[in-house]
Amino acid sequence: MTMTSPAFAPATARMPRLRTYAMTPPIHYTVTYAINPWMDPSTPVDTDRAIAQWLALREVYESLGHSVHVVDPQPGLPDMVYAANGGLSAGNRTIAARFAFPERGPEGDHYADWFEAGGLGPVHRTDGIQEGEGDFLVIGDRILAGTGFRTHRDTHAEVAAITGMPVTTLELIDPRFYHLDTALGILDDEHIAYYPPAFSSASRSVLADLFPDAIIATDADAAVLGLNLVSDGLHVVMTDAAPDLTAALRAAGYEPIGVDLSELLKGGGGIKCCTLELRSTDKEVAVHTLAEPHVAHNYSPLPVTAASAEGAWITDVDGRRFLDCLGAYSAVNFGHRNPRIVAAAIEQLDRVTLTSRAFRSDRLEPFCAALAALCGKDMVLPMNTGAEAVESAIKVARKWGYDVKGVPDGLAKVIVAGGNFHGRTISIISFSDDPDARSGFGPFTPGFVSVPYGDAEAMAAAMDEHTVAVLVEPIQGESGIIVPPDDYLPRVRTMCTERNVLMIADEIQSGLGRTGMTFAVQHWGVEPDVYTLGKALGGGILPVSAVVANHDVLGVLHPGEHGSTFGGNPLAAAVGHTVVEMLAEGTWQARAAELGNRMHSGLRELIGHGVIAVRGLGLWAGIDVDPALGSGKEVCLRLADRGVLAKDTHGSTLRLAPPLVITEEEIDWAVAQLADALRSER
After folding, report:
1. What's this model's pTM, rounded to 2 decimal places?
2. Which parts of the chain span the membrane according to its record (predicted)?
3. Range of the domain at 608
4. Tens digits of per-residue pLDDT, 650-663?
């Protein structure tokens, strides 16, 4: 076949649109079976070369400003690298694939789990066979759907029903082009390139009617999967082995970018096969990529850009005000720009901010003395972030175990609780059971044993002569504000005392007034051996954290064994001391208790009206929403539309942690907005 020139005139300014992609590295890529004409198990495959080519493709996307999310490959699934087949993200819905061949069957579940964990749920599954974007290509508000070799024709109707988008069926007849994306490439919301001989005569007629100005590929370009391309509306990422198609695209005003993916072609896949576009409910991913192209995408923020804040309110760049019901995960307990804390910071800014611990400062000892008194302890180890405080407490516990308890060197063991969240450093994620935190970051630090949260019997069974500490959140925050059984913490305290084990309470989120007490453990009359503190200790001004314990614990540290350039700096000490003075007055704790009762009372009235359960203490609540009404992320987006900022956690759970300066009227208003959000779709 000869190439025809495009009927549409070259655009003077084609506009790219930033995209979000999922890709799976070919760590386990090989060809050991044949399920398409491209695969030949007798032809050697160079996995290292395939990885290098895949990395080059990813680098091209990122150089264009696109966001790439990596799906962990699974042993025994060599074709998982072809991520486009893993599912479809369209029409504000996510559909996981159901593969035609048993060799690829397990991929569907892995991709479904990844979609759900990434906030792209709820994930839909079809009854019929369909292989995701391999056979479903989105163009504008329409889906072009292939059939003939993999995806069943009847499944097209299922996808139309799930996405709410019209689906146009196209029949493939050449087995070399077993997926639609091997014979047709989407260039923008109106234009395509395709290879007519791959389609039945009826489907060729449909394509000619829908896209009279399409670019037509030559035999040679189609034979190297030149149409298996990815376009952002201007840049067309494609094989470097299709010169005629490259020239046609350039003549039409596009900017082709050639990539060598020849090693992966041995498995029957090209550029598009390795690339799944995410268009679904996680809308803020695309917004974040557009708004902050130079910021690493380790967060997925709501589409609100703060410009100023005061008290319990945030004002965005467009002047819209939002009631902050997240409070920076308790870091803003005392409100945004609390006047007393700001004044202390300004005063210290005019004096000295940093000396490092190489010298003393006149602010450090008064701060540590006040904080130790607040905690009923002797000593303070000042640090910066909450994760640093937890890491420091683990180091101290191990040193105490060796020096005081007499545990043989290298055998110290720390018991943790399942569902924990103590930070995201390597040692901390080593004992996390959150796959998002762990996946792709091994090898992990040994020395930790996890038992179910709230199960004192399991903790007792896990303790032995090498156990040096128990690390536990009095109330689990990231898991959805999980309050333990009333006998849990007292029993943990008792067994730690009886077995000479340190009890470490991570009060980084739950402490410093959040739950109506200075520390959450006080609700159960428990005093730990060690507190880890952070977040609110910095007053919403700067990071300040601390490990607080008695001399017989913190005294195991000697000069040179632990330190921090910024830990305990004069500015941090001045701010932290002011926070401690405010808490010593007791009014903040009382306010959190009183307003918390009002908030929980209002939230409990929503049970049976879109809310399944409410948990928490003080001004801290975990809310389980009926999944039929949307994920936690979707509800948070609806709340943001109504002027309330909250944060989702796993599944359909969201959290509220407003600053303690919030008023009764503001609490009532926030609850009313939640009720309205549960009745409506965004």
Report:
1. 0.63
2. none
3. 306-330+588-678
4. 878 999 999 999 99
